[in-house]
Write a structure and sequence with these properties.
two-stranded antiparallel sheet; 9 helices
Length: 198
């Protein structure tokens, strides 16, 4: 049996779970009008390679599914979410990074030859400076309606690693447990599965 590519897996998860009006137009945008499937997830911290954003989105989805399956999370915290909500928040939390990076070149010394060479690297080229989580909410909302909890989860998925007022972050995570769950899944994917050296 031939294994699915990351793109094929993303599209299958998306189509199997996200049935909301406008979802088809959003997927068309991702496939045909953006670099979602080839963009990096960052310039140097995690998944800073072609296809890194796609890989990160799938990693967050897998971490989120595993987190939501924990009995204690469901029973003690009362956190439940539909498969559609999990897919929307996990797969689309970083949509703000589409058409955000571009390849540039710099000189670097080749350790083996001692010669200077032009090497490619990713740089930020933000044509819609609208923040991070809020930009993802804005972009998704242009295609389909989000529930308040989904919007809050995507908005605050950076948790306390974001630059916002810590009191606001804490209140949002307290009021919207899905936001806390997505933040945990994002950190697990970013730091444990990916990281700068992986």
């Amino acid at each position: 049996m031939i294994a699915m590519t990351d793109k094929e897996r993303f599209i299958q998860i998306y189509n199997d779970n996200i049935k909301r009006e406008g979802a088809d137009k959003l997927l068309d945008f991702l496939e045909n009008k953006s670099d979602f499937f080839t963009a990096p997830a960052s310039t140097r911290y995690h998944n800073a390679f072609e296809g890194g954003l796609l890989k990160h989105s799938l990693n967050v989805y897998d971490c989120m599914c595993a987190y939501m399956e924990r009995q204690r999370v469901r029973e003690d915290y009362g956190l439940t979410a539909s498969n559609e909500t999990i897919a929307i928040t996990a797969l689309l939390h970083d949509i703000c990074k589409v058409n955000f990076y571009r390849v540039s070149y710099r000189n670097a010394k080749n350790d083996k030859t001692g010669q200077w060479e032009k090497v490619p690297y990713y740089e930020i080229h933000d044509t819609l400076p609208y923040g991070h989580g809020e930009k993802s909410v804005y972009m998704v909302s242009g295609f389909m309606r989000l529930t308040r909890e989904e919007a809050m989860a995507i908005r605050w998925h950076m948790g306390f690693s974001g630059a916002e007022d810590k009191n606001s972050i804490g209140k949002a995570l307290e009021m919207f447990p899905l936001a806390f769950a997505l933040s945990v899944a994002d950190m697990e994917a970013s730091y444990f599965l990916e990281g700068a050296e992986k």
